[in-house]
Amino acid sequence: MLRVAVVGSGPSGCYTAQNLVQRDTRVLVDVLDRLPCPYGLVRYGVAPDHEKIKSLQGNLRTVLEDDRVRFLGGIRVGGPGGPGVARLRELYHAVVYCVGAATDRHLGIPGEDLPGSWSATEFVSWYSAHPDAADAGFVRDVRSAVVIGVGNVAVDVTRMLSRGRAELSPTDMPQDALAALAASRVSEVVMVGRRGPSQARFTTKELRELGALPGTGIDLDPAELAMDPAYSDPSGLPGPQRRNLEVLRGWAARESGETERRIALRFFLRPVELLAGGGRVAAVRFERTAPDGHGGVTGTGRFETVEAQLVLRSVGYRGVPLAGLPFDAQSGTVPNERGRVLRAGVPSEGEYVAGWIKRGPTGVIGTNRPCAKETVESLLADAPALLRREVPRDPVAVLRAEGSEPVEWPGWRAIERAEAELGTRLGRHVVKLADWDSLLAAARTAAP
Ligand code: NAP
Q1: For residue range 416-428, what is the model confidence (pLDDT) as tens digits?
Q2: Which one of 126, 334, 378, 416 has the minimum C-beta count within 10 Å?
Q3: What residue numbers bound the domain in which 245 lies?
Q4: Which atom of ligand 1 is nearest to the CA of 154?
């Protein structure tokens, strides 16, 4: 049997495992994750109110419950107490790294580290109950927020800031985050793009949701939209961008009545500095940009300041190096050829990548399917050579002997039960456990 370790149990890891067992009946897969919970960004990134996308967990669950797949949570590959990259390579015929893009990009402007300025990832992790996330008092004393960037994550955080208790309560968000967001007095969220509306990265379905939020109106400046040449003549645009402009045009033409909350969509403004007031962020200074005729923008030397007590930069994720694996700092990915890890430009035997760490943080969940398929094709083509090496019969016994304490599937199911029980106690549906102690305590209640 070919023994494969997949590191990371998010969509790319699960699709890799699925592909492996479906294509070859002589493969056994261990899916390792540093968290005791599976599903990666589907659990800790997809917004809690996006129930339909979250329901993908059902598909990923089927993969992890396959007879030839094992989930091993709580194993920190390349980190304290966990196996290193070289050791893992000894324990399995092949290792596929599906570790995603674990951090966020920075703006590199003054004031970025002021209290009240956070990455969207930190905010998302908090309301998604990631056990490493801290409650930074994100919305405390905040009346207006600025979200920098116009991708789908920016839309997610803008929407979450604009939702009320009635809409948040049915989600699985942790009780503390629900209480804080429900009590928040954020009445204005300004989402800002440095380029024009036709270059925004959000998708139309996500954009439309902003216009359907109860008690929330949308503000657009028709003159600002018209700075984008494609706004008046969208005929040359691809369908998704054209549809985005149609939505924006519809909103711009709409009478906007009085609402409890407002979302302003601004364009052609690039952040140059976060300004302080009272020891925290108080405003963002932007430079007005103008289209350069080639899809980019240039500065105009004119500036505008937007007040905000909360600034979320939502300018993309970024891969982080894993000790022992090669890393291209420029792209934030592991150098690879069709998923085969390249060391000094040469494919390294038995080491593979899939997902964001392979191709960068772009695309929707489904993009990981063809990406995983390509990697698995490479791996299975290499299988005859990989099988020549002897590996332990039971790598888990070795991992345990070397100090790892894996949370296996029954442990995860016990966490799920604890989250359902917590939800019942709170009069809600499932409510996520948000800290390491509660997760591990719940996992330990699993029958051995
Ligand atoms: P993204 O789509 O790459 O968007 C990043 C945004 O940040 C862009 O508007 C970009 O503008 C802007 N930006 C980058 N650097 C900047 C700077 N220095 N100053 C100002 N703006 C800057 O990234 P994302 O929103 O993090 O999403 C990551 C991936 O996850 C995407 O593929 C997304 O579709 C996916 N996702 C999907 C969903 C969903 O399907 N519901 C939800 C969340 C995420 P420029 O274009 O000018 O660079």
Answers
A1: 999 999 999 999 9
A2: 416
A3: 105-316
A4: 25
Whether 187 is in a domain gets the answer yes
Please report the DSSP string for 133-146 in residue order: -----TTTT-SEEE
The rounded Å distance from CA 206 to ligand 1 centre is 13
pLDDT tier for residue 24 given thresholds of 50, 70 and 90: confident
CA of 92 to the centre of ligand 1 (A): 36
Tokens in use for 80? 């304290």
Count of structural domains within the chain:
2
**Is 419 a domain residue?**
no
107 CA closest ligand 1 atom index:
18
Report the atom number in ligand 1 closest to the C-alpha of 195. 47
For residues 270 and 167, membership in a common domain is answered with yes
Query: 354 and 302 in one domain?
Result: no
- Between CA 5 and CA 382 the distance in angstroms is 15
Q: Which amino acid is at 335?
A: P
The answer to whether the beta carbons of residues 9 and 64 sit under 8 Å apart is yes
Ligand 1 pocket, Cβ-based, cut-off 6 angstroms? 107, 148-154, 156, 193-195, 199, 201, 206, 270-271, 314-317, 361-364
Q: Looking at the domain assignment, is residue 66 inside a domain?
A: yes
Strand partners, 119: 313
Average pLDDT over residues 307-335: 97
Digit-coded pLDDT (tens) for 50-74: 999 999 999 999 999 999 999 999 9
Please report, for the domain that includes residue 114, its CATH number.
3.50.50.60
For residues 229-243, give the mean pLDDT.
94
